[in-house]
Amino acid sequence: MKTYITVCKNVILRNLKRKRNDPAVRVSRGKHGAPRRYRDYHKGNLHVYGDMRRKPLPWGARVWVEINE
């Protein structure tokens, strides 16, 4: 079964406008799985970070993916 990870740009922009910290990462298992929202998502070697309270990366990214090899 595939895991789909989506970054919700509209949530990121809404958080910046309203000074909130709603989860911007959407994860669903399979095409018809019920999606869940996360601030940070970790599975095996894959890490997705999207916490709005953190300072953005130097190039402006607010959500990023890290893979440990």
How does this structure look, described?
By secondary structure, the protein is of the alpha+beta class. The protein has one domain (3-67). It contains one helix and six strands; from the N terminus they run E-H-E-E-E-E-E.
How would the blueprint of this fold be written?
Elements: E1 3-7, H1 9-18, E2 25-29, E3 36-38, E4 40-43, E5 46-49, E6 64-67
Would you summarize the structure shown here?
With 69 residues, this protein is of the alpha+beta class.
Which keywords apply here?
3-stranded antiparallel sheet, 6 strands, alpha+beta, 69 residues
Lateral strand order in the biggest sheet: 1-2-3
Q: Span between N and C termini?
A: 22 Å
Average residue pLDDT: 84
State the order of secondary-structure elements, H for helix, E for strand: EHEEEEE
The fraction of residues in strands falls at 35-45%
What is the rounded Rg? 12 Å
Helix content: 10-25%
Provide a count of the helices.
Answer: 1
Largest sheet: 3 strands, antiparallel
Number of beta-strand segments: 6
Give start-end ranges of low-pLDDT stretches: none
The shape, in one word, is: flat
